[in-house]
Amino acid sequence: MTESEKYLFDVHGYIIVKGALSAEEIAAANAAVDHYSDQMPARGTDLTNRSSTLAGTFGRGDMGSLLLWDKPYVDVIRNMMVHPSFVSRLEAVLGKGFRLEGLGGITMDKGAGGFWFHEGGEPIDPSRAYLYRNGQMYCGMTNIAVQLADVGPGDGGFACLPGSHKANFPCPDDIRLYEAHQDRIVQITAEAGDALIFTESLMHGALPWTADHQRRTILMRYNAGTIGESVTGTYTPPPYFDELTNEQKAVISAPHYRQPDKGSNLYRTQ
Ligand SMILES: O=C(O)CCC(=O)C(=O)O
Questions:
Q1: Residue whose CA is closest, atom 10 of ligand 1?
Q2: Would you kindly state where each structural domain of the chain is located, as residue ranges?
């Protein structure tokens, strides 16, 4: 993570990695989504939480369990789990030994409803919290949203209240429902291949999708190695485990403790 990215992540709760995927990776991922497109059920419209401004005429599509897709379609998805564009940036906020907590995907067609603005720094939720201490950022759940299609201004999709990961007061319901102070909410624009890395403690949601083309986002959720809100598969390895590279296997693990470097030679004598 560069110094500028650290600054922006700390202040805003997210960064955008431009061109995180190559043109070949974007094409392969879109081909995989096309292949499974008839197996992506639409979710209900409940994600709007009855907001009058986030309503759509139908719900978003859920890509399901992408890691269970067949080869060759799954290959590009597996590579994304520990992609060189992401590993050092995740280590900057989660430490070494981070875990993948889940991997899914979102589609939104024109008219799909949004998602109410959830999370935020208050109340503190230890497995999702954001903390800065002793020169270091510490995050709980940290997400990477890889865009497989462009997201232009006004298209809708992911949006957030920058800085809300450090909120001290509860967020009023009318802001969470996008019924007041809409001008404070930022819709994140991106090109296909860009990735948004954000702390789950950022208050975020989605605006209804208005563009003619389909929104396509791969969403990967990570956490520190010691934290396990959920596991990818179960505590017994998932069925595809033996096909993974060592780097991929390392993030699909049960929560585990890794002795950090505590800076004193006393620890090194043990
Ligand atoms: O990108 C979106 O539509 C919202 C994603 C979201 O709410 C989440 O990752 O928790």
A1: 200
A2: 3-254
Question: Has domain 3-254 been given CATH number 3.40.50.1970?
Answer: no
Q: Given this model, what pLDDT does residue 268 score?
A: 60
Q: Which atom of ligand 1 is nearest to the CA of 145?
A: 1
Q: What is the pTM of this model?
A: 0.95
Position 264 scores a pLDDT of: 75
CB 41 within 8 A of CB 61: yes
Is 20 near ligand 1, meaning CB less than 6 Å away?
A: no
Is the distance from the beta carbon of residue 141 to the nearest atom of ligand 1 less than 6 Å? no
Atom of ligand 1 nearest to the CA of 118: 7
Which ligand 1 atom is nearest residue 200's CA? 10
